[in-house]
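Lecture 7 notes: from sequence to structure.
We start with the chain below.
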Amino acid sequence: MSNLISQEENFSEWYNGIIQLADLAENSDVRGCMILKPYGYSIWENIQKILDDKFKKTGHQNAYFPLFIPKSYFCKEASHVEGFAKECAVITHYRLKNKDNSIVVDENAKLEDEYIVRPTSETIIWNTFKKWIQSYRDLPIKINQWANVCRWEMRTRPFLRTSEFLWQEGHTAHSNIEEARKETLQMLDVYYNFGKDYLAIPFIKGIKTENEKFAGAEETYTVEALMKDGKALQCGTSHLLGQNFAKAFDVKYLNKDNKLEYVWGTSWGVSTRLIGAIIMTHGDDKGLILPPKIAPIQIVIIPLDNNEQINNIVNKLNSDLLDNNISVKIDDRDYLRPGFKFTEWELKGVPIRIVIGKKDIENKTLEVIRRDENSKFSISIDNSTEILIKLLSDIQDNIYKKALEFRQNHTFEVDNYNDFKDKISNKSGFIISPWDGTTETELKIKEELQGTIRCIPFENNDLTVENNINDKCIYSQKQSKNKVIFAQNY
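Predicted structure tokens for the same chain:
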């Protein structure tokens, strides 16, 4: 049976418990790195398949670039190297040798230009773009890479922050800023809609402050989500790089007037952090709750007896569901009691469990348990496939509705500093407050309250943020530039 601690008792332990008990991942012997177990990796595979299809439909092609990046590349873009300097793993030697019956680094095998283990790929990709781009006919270039990256984190948590993680990173090159900005916002919309339609997570779109933007970008756009403990999670970013990397790597193109111009760039990405977002947005004290559209197993069938009549019904139902592209698991393990099976699949968040016993055969019904409501009811065997397909759609919609209601109930407009301080300190959720637009105020709030500006929200979110010309900054009481979203964050 489950030993999962409750969210209210200790949210952090609850989160770690789900990862362990739902068999998603485990810590490895490599510091700060996790092992993605098959069930956890299958969730990432589903995310990958869906997004990969969306990227290709927006004109992007997949490529792959080296894991090792010469240190000299990083030195070409000053703000970029400054932003990642403290997180870089550096390869200094290329050979080992035996010495006194032990393995040591060969001191004579030192690299002249040391390698950085990829924290992100802008530098090596823009160095490559220089070879690929000569004229306007070569533009735009739209590349995506599915890869692993390394960022040497001091404090790690599975899925949320690890020294190595999986992600996709898009990199594009354009002939003008209008096209580059359109690309940046288009990919932000891809993430936003993916969150809503597949992950059942209501994201908020917005632009990052100057202090929070990506190192080397002109503008950084983000999708932010609210977790059940009242903390924010950045779930994806899209960056307008401007001409910064083009100038750093001397990437120019010959325009239609036969004049050389620097190229305009973008980059954008999401990672296995999305699995952490799913856990903390939807999970409950019984375990994981997976949206059907990304669940590795959408329906599990548990026969209570092993006889020909039950097996025939199970096999027929399994075949019909598979024909309708529903992923199904038949749990006919005879060494486990039914109660253990129920608990396991509940922990793993499978959207629908079906139980079939002798009484169900007699009644020509199936016992159905929907994970999002933890409710149990019977349906007719005769039209069960049609009912179950509709039920999966209802579950997907209901999970999103619950997450949206939670966010709405934990979003507050605050213009009084004492209330602001109280809500930030208690991790109450998203706090919408006026800000004077200065990095000084932003950093003071972060230092005093551990609250950060998650974004300056767009108008086309499903929440209303109205700026007033008379608004005063929540901290400095100077004239406000924008109302922004504050929160403690992961």
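Points to note: The mean pLDDT is 96. The chain has three domains: 11-282, 299-391, 411-487.
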